[in-house]
């Protein structure tokens, strides 16, 4: 691996310039790409879609929204019990989303952030070989958490997928593919595989989630870097779901690479705070070709001993990997960011030492 650290997305700063400058200063030479921090509404990941896209759509009914906060309307749930819920209205056969390329609110911030990115890179703030990273929730992650009637899925998902494809096309229209790293965020999929989404169909769960991969990835330009970020979710605290081992994560990672129809450049797998051998053992079954593997081990906040043990166990089952946090930093305080990034570098030193024996 040439680049041994990965940032998976959110950073709790208010502007992309703050994100690019801070992250470049601390870990710029170690990462293949830099995200813009998912500032603004995107900091809460798919909650932005609930508020900006699904709520108010004429063919979608809002069943539940987050409660008032301090006497004012509020779109940000504090935990799962406050999450948005929707259903497709009766009589609607297909939900479609207008304003292709802009409706989901991913292309516009990406285009503006890329201008800041390339300006800072030209100034030497960002290393010359670092790409601009865009992180997008894959279709089932965007839908399944909010819509609890599986009968809605065939009426809703084709239209959402088309909107997502249009958003990616618009990004590619404005940003060179050779300068992009696209990361598909796959959180609800992993939670569902771990049995944590009670209303979804339980037969052929893995196949149901892998079926969305080809139409989203196969036609992406080869010049673009492509990766998958698996996650256990952070709404109300990380992790929202847990597993007995990494079997489901490995199965999804292998299937995603197989179904992508093109080169996959990286896979990120979240790691729970355990050192049990049986938890890590499925890593020996990873079959992701030449994709770089990043393990989300960095969440002990200063407990180097526990981190060292976890990395050491992982090395028994996969000899080559990079490091990352299990999720983004969006739920941290801005004052914590530099410390978190410095811990990434310290963890990399631990990894190098263990690999040397």
Could you explain how this protein is built, in words?
- It is a single chain.
- By secondary structure, this protein is an alpha/beta fold.
- It has a single domain, classed as TIM Barrel (Alpha-Beta Barrel), CATH 3.20.20.
- 36% of the residues lie in helices and 13% in strands.
- It contains twelve helices and ten strands.
- The chain has helices spanning 16-27, 47-54, 107-122, 139-143, 153-174, 188-193, 205-210, 213-217, 247-259, 277-280, 304-315, 337-356, and strands spanning 5-6, 33-35, 60-64, 85-88, 131-137, 180-186, 225-230, 266-270, 292-296, 322-324.
- The protein has an eight-stranded parallel beta sheet with strand order 1-10-9-8-7-6-5-2. The chain has a two-stranded antiparallel sheet with strand order 3-4.
- Strand 7, helix 9 (247-259) and strand 8 (266-270) form a beta-alpha-beta unit.
- The chain is globular and about 65 Å long.
- The two termini are 18 Å apart.
